[in-house]
């Protein structure tokens, strides 16, 4: 919740020859006006930013132009797009999927523009819907680049069950309220959310994941990744997921009727290794942009992800609503034959 700071200024009395006279007027303390939070931008400007993003993103992918993409993306969204470009370039032409013309349907997009104080980075969120009955939902977060002053997409996350999206609180003018994602007033500040997500991958949620999050489609999907991937080699190899320092620490939160809707990023690694000397892992075609084709006894992959969660303000479990990950690095891990 944005908290205005009330600053009290005490007026001083100038030193004059009669300042100490009983007739000298005393100046009473006065309070300065509290800073007023203003909308990050207008709805029309937000729609223009989304349109510019859609058009430029398409051109950048068609041209395989990271520099052009950099003008409309930042944060985890840009890291994932760069990974997509790198991976695509390494694939045989026959395996590359054509990048089709697309755009967000602004008529099916809800804008959530927060009021922000002077000095805060400007950002806004949107929920865009698709499908024959608008049954699919994607949450977008755009932030203003403080240097270029251009609006850039920093996160896009598909929501597994749009019915679980909480109601975002709007004021009488239709603007949202940004809150601190690390606030202790939330049942799970963003640091706990990030730890719980990585625990879903690392242990199947046994340490913190199942305590912080309710058991729903999204959490179960992450746990399924852990369960299936750690068994993929059978007796010939092992897989271990571990948390990594997040590459992107920014988090975006909006006040809801029950707490907050929080969009954040996490980073995790996956270490694959053979179980016995003489065995080797052959890189899959999607990995070859980073690894080439040379087999190795062990590989470590780095994943950059965006996540979205509904977090209550009361001590109850949060709901993980969606996540999106990309392999953003991979490397041979040396001759070790086990994890």
Provide a descriptive summary of the structure in words.
It is a single chain. This protein is an alpha+beta fold and 339 residues long. Helix content is 22%, strand content 29%. The protein has helices at residues 43-63, 66-69, 75-90, 190-203, 209-212, 217-229, 288-291; strands spanning 8-9, 30-31, 38-39, 109-112, 114-116, 123-130, 136-144, 151-159, 176-177, 237-244, 252-255, 259-274, 298-312, 319-332. The strands form four sheets. Strands 10, 11, 12, 13 and 14 form a five-stranded antiparallel sheet that branches. β13 and β14 (319-332) form a beta hairpin. α4 packs across α6 (217-229). The two termini are 44 Å apart.
Alpha-beta content class: alpha+beta
| Count of β-strands | 14
Largest sheet, in brief, is: 5 strands, antiparallel
Helix residue percentage: 10-25%
Element-level helix/strand string:
EEEHHHEEEEEEHHHEEEHEE
Overall mean pLDDT score?
89
Number of helices: 7
CA-based gyration radius = 25 Å
How large is the share of residues in beta strands?
25-35%
N- and C-termini, Cα separation: 44 Å
- Spans of at least 5 consecutive residues whose pLDDT stays below 50 are 1-27
Shape: globular
Chart the SSEs and their pairings:
Blueprint: E1 8-9, E2 30-31, E3 38-39, H1 43-63, H2 66-69, H3 75-90, E4 109-112, E5 114-116, E6 123-130, E7 136-144, E8 151-159, E9 176-177, H4 190-203, H5 209-212, H6 217-229, E10 237-244, E11 252-255, E12 259-274, H7 288-291, E13 298-312, E14 319-332
Parallel strand pairs: 5-9
Antiparallel strand pairs: 1-2, 3-5, 4-6, 6-7, 7-8, 10-12, 11-12, 12-13, 13-14
Helix pairs in contact: 4-6
């Amino acid at each position: 919740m944005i908290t205005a700071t009330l600053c009290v200024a005490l007026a001083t009395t100038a030193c004059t020859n009669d300042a100490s006279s009983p007739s000298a007027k005393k100046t009473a303390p006065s309070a300065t006006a509290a800073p007023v939070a203003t909308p990050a931008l207008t709805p029309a400007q937000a729609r223009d930013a989304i349109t510019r993003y859609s058009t430029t993103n398409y051109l950048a992918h068609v041209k395989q132009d990271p520099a052009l993409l950099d003008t409309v993306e930042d944060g985890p969204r840009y890291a994932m797009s760069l990974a997509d470009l790198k991976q695509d370039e390494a694939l045989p032409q026959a395996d590359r999927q054509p990048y089709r013309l697309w755009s967000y349907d602004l008529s099916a997009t809800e804008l959530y523009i927060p009021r922000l104080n002077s000095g805060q980075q400007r950002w806004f969120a949107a929920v865009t819907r698709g499908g024959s009955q608008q049954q699919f939902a994607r949450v977008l977060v755009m932030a203003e680049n403080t240097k270029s002053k251009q609006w850039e997409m920093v996160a896009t996350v598909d929501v597994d069950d749009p019915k679980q999206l909480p109601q975002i609180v709007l004021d009488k003018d239709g603007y949202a309220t940004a809150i601190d994602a690390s606030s202790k007033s939330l049942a799970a500040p963003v640091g706990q959310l990030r730890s719980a997500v990585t625990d879903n991958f690392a242990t199947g949620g046994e340490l913190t994941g199942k305590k912080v999050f309710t058991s729903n489609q999204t959490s179960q999907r992450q746990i399924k990744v852990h369960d299936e991937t750690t068994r993929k080699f059978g007796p010939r190899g092992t897989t271990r997921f571990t948390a990594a320092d997040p590459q992107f620490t920014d988090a975006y939160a909006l006040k809801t009727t029950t707490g907050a809707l929080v969009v954040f990023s996490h980073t995790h690694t996956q270490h694959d290794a053979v179980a016995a000397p003489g065995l080797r892992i052959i890189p899959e075609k999607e990995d070859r942009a980073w690894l080439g084709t040379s087999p190795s006894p062990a590989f470590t992959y780095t994943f950059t992800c965006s996540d979205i969660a509904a977090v209550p303000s009361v001590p109850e479990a949060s709901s993980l609503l969606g996540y999106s990950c990309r392999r953003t690095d991979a490397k041979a891990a040396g001759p070790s034959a086990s994890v």
